[in-house]
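REVIEWER CHECKLIST
Item 1: Sequence provided? yes
Item 2: Single chain? yes
Item 3: Sequence as submitted:
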Amino acid sequence: MLAPSPLAAAHSMDTTWFGVDEEGRVAQFESGEAGAVPRRAASAGGAGSPNFDTFALRAAMVARAIAAAPDDPPDAQSTAKQSFRAPSRALIVLRVSEEEAASYRENNAISGAERSVPSEHWIVLRPNGPRIVAYTKELSVKTLEALAARQDVLALLDEEAMSNWLYEAPSAAQTGVYLYRHGEWDIPGSYKSGGAPLEPLTLKELPEATQKALSQGKFPLRFEDTPKLQLADYFGEDECERWGDVTLRGEPKQPVTPPASRSTKPSTADLLTTFGVLAFAIMFLVVLFVLGRR
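Item 4: Structure as written out by the authors:
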């Protein structure tokens, strides 16, 4: 595993966090009120703030769902009538012909919409059928509106629209990620499967920075073979945040007894030793004084 990344203590309540299995498949975990959360896991927020840039992952999840139902993109309204409240990154669904789709496969050509803004900020989430791309740098409101009005743009979702859609609509099967939930009355480290995708989303489909963040919570198992999961099998007690004074397995925590501090009060033996040294010194001085007067 990679080195730990910070996770606020508040993340032990209502947190969405992510992990990957030994095949690089992505899972989303919902901690609920009392579920434990690994400190080094990539968090998408909840009671605290996200600890990595979730845009590419969220865009990939939306793209996977759109690809599963290309005739019913999540942005049902006419793109030409869209208005945007603030600059934003965006996910765009493009209309391409069969000839253009073949060109994309063979020559990695880009559409007119993609050519209209600097190309180094595009990431391709699906090359065709439909073609789905995301722009990783904020676009101005004017640029977003211009892109949305293009004939080759089927749908455009800014970050607010992506978040709203992910919150309201999708299941694990739609978004490509496995889903695990902590039950309201379960022990802290216990999670159960809440759904499996038909076509799992994998790390290799995501940008390098996102891969690195998600790999902080890597499990030596296959999610498709794991309907139940106990964090204590993979993380130490001090590697997870949780509410309450119980272990990941729900057992009472053993109280920590501080080491006994050494008393600063001198013992009787120490006092006798000190008095003996003083008495000898006084007797020696008296002898010297008597001899000096002779």
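Item 5: Key structural point noted by reviewer: The first helix runs from residue 55 to 68.
Item 6: Recommendation: ____
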